Amino acid sequence: MSIPAEDALSAAAQTPATRASGEESIAVELDGVTKRFGKIAALDDVSLLVRRGELMTLLGPSGCGKTTLLNLVGGFLMPDSGEIAIDGQRVTDVSAYRREIGITFQNYALFPHMNVAANVGYGLRMRRVAKAEIARRVADALALIKLAGLEDRKPRQLSGGQQQRVALARALVIRPKVLLLDEPFSALDRNLRASMQVELKEIQRKLGVTTIFVTHDQSEALSLSDRIAVMAEGRIRQLGSPDEIYRRPVDRFVASFVGDVNVLRARLERIDGAIATVVLGAARVKVPSRTLQGAATGCIVDLFVRPEELRPTEPGMAVAADGIVAAQSYQGGHVDLYVDAPEALSGRVLLRVPRHEGMSRWRAGAPIGIALAADEAIAFRPA
Ligand SMILES: Nc1ncnc2c1ncn2[C@@H]1O[C@H](COP(=O)(O)OP(=O)(O)O)[C@@H](O)[C@H]1O
Ligand SMILES: [Mg+2]
């Protein structure tokens, strides 16, 4: 049980792709990985490079294969085909224990009969680390996650947030090569979740530990990640920075899954190389032509516009669509207006307006002109 990771991995060969991609900067590599459960391909020929020190989020709906991918990296599942490498060493058939991975699960999975210190020190005891060293590293880990002083508590004497911190400390204390977090904050209430997200980000930056974070919550993914892999049905649909994913989704699925979006029926006016011009009412907007391959000039396209890119028209503005306010929803800092408009694919458009004008001016039943506030958007051919 005391075999250092280097020994455990020394027999493993590097994959050609690892060498080619600059192994120094790549912490985790999946190369054509497929995992089936019976007839279902939980992961379908997935390739992914996770950079050293980055926080990569796997984002996608329930059942898309996020946990399966995490378990394959952790060594808790073996792929049917494809290869996995950690720090440039092939680990496809290396056991979980020898991969030097830290993992936390959705339900914390703390040992109920052990106190906090014993829970956090568990992985070090398994690795036969000397007692004094364990005490020091456990104390450091508890300080890092701000739980110093609670060493003697049992898990049942802790709040949900504190239990999640203990789970994080337990994963970090072994100084893992990669930290794997499976929906760690999903059981926490909204405020606590937000503060844990910020804290995790700070700790992750401070330690520089390569992290793969799983969530189905798009706002969590946008706020936490260096890069996001958006998944659907066992495949990665798009890999990019939060801003790329939000502003330049490659397909309708990504555009709809990440962030609120309005889908409006518009007309393709022209294509000039990489840029296309789309007309909606009296308004024109530029979109990348890449997502409109094969669309003919004059045909109907679906314009995807974020709520914050729409606003009520003011005199002199081009009216993109006319609608009737169906409902207003007070959100504190702003007001969400739900507007019935025939141009919307769903029949309804969501706008975000400042609080003061939202509540007084745009009551249910009020007619409203909608303008495009952005000079760029994205459009796809109708589904
Ligand atoms: N042990 C298993 N046995 C059978 N099917 C499984 C097993 N684990 C996962 N699956 C199936 O594989 C797919 C992906 O599951 P999972 O990776 O858990 O998704 P996610 O974590 O994104 O919700 C789902 O269709 C799920 O039902
Ligand atoms: Mg899961």
Task: Write up this protein.
This protein has 383 residues and is an alpha+beta fold. The protein folds into 2 domains: 5-100 and 176-253, P-loop containing nucleotide triphosphate hydrolases (Rossmann fold, 3-Layer(aba) Sandwich); 261-380, RNA polymerase II/Efflux pump adaptor protein, barrel-sandwich hybrid domain (OB fold (Dihydrolipoamide Acetyltransferase, E2P), Beta Barrel). It is 27% helix and 34% strand. It contains 11 helices and 20 strands. The strands form 4 sheets. Strands 6-7-8-3-9-10 form a 6-stranded mixed sheet, with helices on both faces. Residues 1-21 have low confidence and may be disordered.
Q: Uncertain regions: pLDDT < 50 for 5+ in a row?
A: 1-21
- End-to-end Cα distance, whole Å, is 55 Å
Instruction: Provide the spatial order of strands within the biggest beta sheet.
Output: 6-7-8-3-9-10
Q: What CATH architecture of the largest domain would you give?
A: 3-Layer(aba) Sandwich
Strand count, sense and closure of the main sheet? 6 strands, mixed
CATH class of the largest domain: Alpha Beta
Overall body shape: globular
Q: What is the CATH third-level topology name of the largest domain?
A: Rossmann fold
Measured as a percent range, the helix fraction is 25-40%
**What number is the mean pLDDT?**
90
CATH superfamily of the largest domain: P-loop containing nucleotide triphosphate hydrolases
Number of E strands: 20
Bound molecules: adenosine-5'-diphosphate, magnesium ion
Quickly count the domains: 2
